[in-house]
Amino acid sequence: MRRMPTEQTIQSCREVTITRETKSIQFCCCGLSQIIRSSFCTVISLILVFHFSSAAPAAEDESKWLPWYELGGFYGSDDGSRGEVALFAPFEQRSRALGFVDLRGKLFEENVSEFNLASGYRWMLHNGWNLGAWGGLDARESSIDNRFYQLSAGFDALHSDFDFRVNGYAALSDPKMSPELAQVRLSGNRILMVGGEEIALSGADIEVGARVPLERFLGGVSAHELRVYAGGFHFDDDDALQDVSGPKVRVAWRVNDVISAIPGSRLTFEAEFSNDNVRDSRWEGGIRLSIPFSTSKMPSTASLAALSAQERRMTERLERDTDIITAQSDEEPVIDPATGMALNRLAIANGGTSLQRAILKARRNGLVIVQGTHTGNAVLNRSQTLAGGGSSLTVLGRDSGTTSSFTVPGSPARIRHTGDSAALTLERHNHVLGLHLVGAGRGSGLVNNVGILGRRSLGNVTLANNTITDFGNDGIALRKVTTNRDLLITNNTILRVGLDGVIVRIIDDAVVSAEIRGNRVRGVIQDGIDIHTNDNSKLTYTVENNIVRNAGDDGLDFDFLDNSRVRLFVYNNLLTGSQSNGMEFDIEDTSRVFGTMSNNTINSIVGEGIEFDQDNNSHAKFKIIGNTVTATTDDPLDIDLEDESTGLYRVADNLFLGDPGTDIDIDTKLNCLSCLLSLQMFENVSRSDFNFDELGTTTFELEDTLDTNTLRGSAIFDIDAGIKIVPFGTFFDGPEN
Fold it and tell me: What does DSSP assign to residue 458?
């Protein structure tokens, strides 16, 4: 009983069923992904169609030449080993002419596959030569999953003793992006990418061959046949790094009629060697088995014995380069994707070159590589990238659009500055990475001793993987961000500074998207990370995966002032040991803030865990979900509304474990004449009291979800009688959203 394939198998199989009388066979090619690989199955399927639809032999004068199929395997250098299958089938026959199709499928190492379809015509001449011409289409899926197509055509002249072939190939596919092949290198005063694209090459090859007369050595006619070939090839493209050109030689040892019951069967042992300026020396060796077969309209294989040597050569396989030749693209300039700026020039600051001199040499749109130790301070030009030795810089090919990582050469960069100024001052479109900046000391009293300073209108800045230690003022201070650009501050380490670890101020109607991710801040005198938005600015902020330890003031401090418009996402931060609050939010002056806080951990805080202060007609909508707040000496959560402000807060799935006597304290103040506070609070666990107060002429609405919260120890609910209890699901569309 035939087992039926599952639905999943059917989706990945090419299935052929051939029936002859009461016999049937089903063939299924499974596990060969992509269109080209399925073409491999097509060739096998067609072979089976020919083989199992065979019937009684026809009369000898109906057809002279038989179709044949071939199976082979080759072992080659440079991941060139492969299995292959081929089908040669006549579609028109005359006494001295033959039209045919030649189909091939190949599966290589490294998941490379290829399919070739060709159609040709050959004529027998009276002088013993056969002339042929053919044309075809080739498809290849490369090792990096790029798919290429080419047109191919050729001419061959075959004699019983000699061969001559010339073939041409025209690539049809555009270059494909190839991050796996791309390489970034320094060349003089430039940084360039090669191999950003994989390119299919067009070209030609030529081959001549001769049969070695073995009968002279073996004492008569033999089933063995030895042929040797020599030729050359050339492939190129204007955008390729190099052309591919060189010689090749091939040897084929054939054993004809290797299966005595199948005249015309052939076993071929073949070896080939080639050399070119890109792939160097390449060789392969393998074996092919060719089997002719008959159908209801074709003679039996016995008729092959009656064919002359010239007639047999009419069904020779097409010899051509079935592999679509690909190469790396040529050199191209690069762009720093962090800033979007081209890196047109290169300068290196090492022990013999001052940092500032290298910065001036690189000018705008330049890359400055910093190696070794430097003293003093430096001011960057606009549109510059400053990279320390050993750091990893991602660049983008200007033409290919391919990204590649480049390891900056040289020893790690260390800049020491003890003067009363910034060690490094930024301009617009700067990217600084892989530096270690050392200042005058946290207690130096130098009020301008900053690690990295943005002193003027600033935007489109990336600061990544830097270490900033022992400065008298801030570690990173971007105090005048005014342009409509992006900011990224990521994976920096800031230790022992006299004011804030990171301070960012957005001003003057700026529209900014900013990300502060993965930074480590410890031992700062004031806030770990301090964010201000002023002057009608619009900001989208992501603060994620930062660790702030032992800040002298707040761990994270957010101030949204002067009619700001903010979207804020605060995720997965660890804040511990702060001497004031873990997180503090001041929302004032008609500002509107929409935020989400989730999965943050706040512990060992001297003040409050999370504090919200809304003043002066501000509006806030916050989701506070899945946070853990432990060991606070003041309230784990404090929300205060004043001065006609409105707030909508969802507090869910949090763990509040403040010290004994602390509260979940949510209030509207006396100076609220028309404040509106809407609160949804459910499924929290707390050992602090829930203390909700409504003061002044306000509206405080509380969803009826308190019974879903879990109280520990002696914690209680203390709810002002004036608070309006509204139905579950009134705010935020219910707890499930």
Answer: B
